[in-house]
Amino acid sequence: MDASAHIDDLAGFISAAPSPYHAVAEVARRLGEAGYTALDETADWRESIVPGARLVVVRDGAVIALAIPDTAGPGTPFRIVGAHTDSPTFRLKPQPAATSHNWRQAMVEIYGGPILSTWFDRELEFAGRLVHRDGGVHLVRTGPFARIPHLAIHLDREVNQSFAPDKQRDVQPIFGVSGPDILTHLARIAGFEAGDVLGFDIVTVDAAAPARFGADNALFAAPRLDNLSSVHAGLLALLAAEPTAAIAVLAAFDHEEVGSETRSGAAGPMLADVLDRVTAGLGGNDRGDLARALAGSWCLSADAGHGVHPNRPERHDPTHRPLVGGGPLLKVNVNQRYATDGLGTALWARVCAAADVPFQEFVSNNAIPCGTTIGPITATRLGIPTLDVGIPLLSMHSARELCQVDDPGRLAAAAATFLSGRE
């Protein structure tokens, strides 16, 4: 897939994935069309886990998919591309609506660390899942529906000097001056009454479509590039991979932006449980077989990183200046905020050479705290050697983030080489 086709496909994937629940549904849909079999976690998997099988498991906003080689046995190692499905945003509170001075407002909590100012004065959509009283789960999305309004400059003459919105008072979106409340509207989209909704998980997202623009259409702006760019790259890599010596795995988790310590997060048991069941299904009869498999495994933790900002280059390390359009990042931090070490660096160099993909090293400025990823979590929980990579962005955690059009496809190509073990 060339860079232009990849960006078009990424745009379609992002548009189909306004919430983590939609994202995993889209991953599962595409894998199903490619012949993957969906597994129910409550079922017996032993008849499904056989050499040559293609399998997918969904839990809430997380998905794990596996391509088992024809020669697999109980000690076969894993090659894992890990990513996360969530992004900084706002989520509806249990009492989701109120009225103030005739304005209908949605009551939201801040999720993760969004750049709050970027969410003002743009059309917003609500999306996620409703839980019906019969236990059924329904995915819903509103389309453009709400807006967080700025105070006019005439009422705040200092707004351009310092804008620091109050996290409770200033970020509650408006969605009308009359008509149904937000939960009633969402229930009608799903085809039932608000009284039938016993639970919900609804996020706020930018309603504008992803867009290419700039000289030669070389720039790509979209919501949720952190980290749907990596989920998409991992999905295409899995579909393109031809594993022979290791089981190829895509593991996309929820809740990374808030610490990953949930049943569907990277710090939870989901990945370990799936790998254990797969090893057992291939004939493993004790924990030693799983330990052997994990000892020979690798995890590629894929999460977007920072390209050098042209207006604030001093915020970056002076000798590590990764550029958008320069290829995916290899992320290094000696304090283990990223899991990359010398062995992982060498593996990534071989993978990128085999895939004919350039790459760049990223190291944080010593004076600025470094972010982290699921990489150290996976390495700690499973003991799998892990390296951290991702495409360079500008405006990470904005309502709309920015990349150069060549980088997402390069990450997918390198990830496919990694999953296939062709380095």
UniProtKB/TrEMBL annotation:
Query: Could you tell me the superkingdom of the organism this chain comes from?
Result: Bacteria
One GO CC annotation, please? cytoplasm
Per the UniProt record, which EC number(s) apply here?
3.4.11.-
Is Hydrolase among this UniProt entry's keywords? yes
Q: Which UniProt keywords apply?
A: Aminopeptidase, Hydrolase, Metal-binding, Metalloprotease, Protease, Zinc
Q: Which GO MF terms does the UniProt record name?
A: aminopeptidase activity; metallopeptidase activity; zinc ion binding
**Which BP terms in the Gene Ontology apply to this protein?**
proteolysis
- List the SUPFAM superfamilies: Aminopeptidase/glucanase lid domain, Zn-dependent exopeptidases
Top-level EC class as recorded in UniProt: hydrolase
Name the needed cofactors: Zn(2+)
Q: Where is the signal peptide?
A: none
Looking up InterPro entries in the UniProt record yields:
Peptidase_M18 (IPR001948), Peptidase_M18_dom2 (IPR023358)
Q: Give the family per the record.
A: Belongs to the peptidase M18 family.
Q: What is this protein called in UniProt?
A: M18 family aminopeptidase
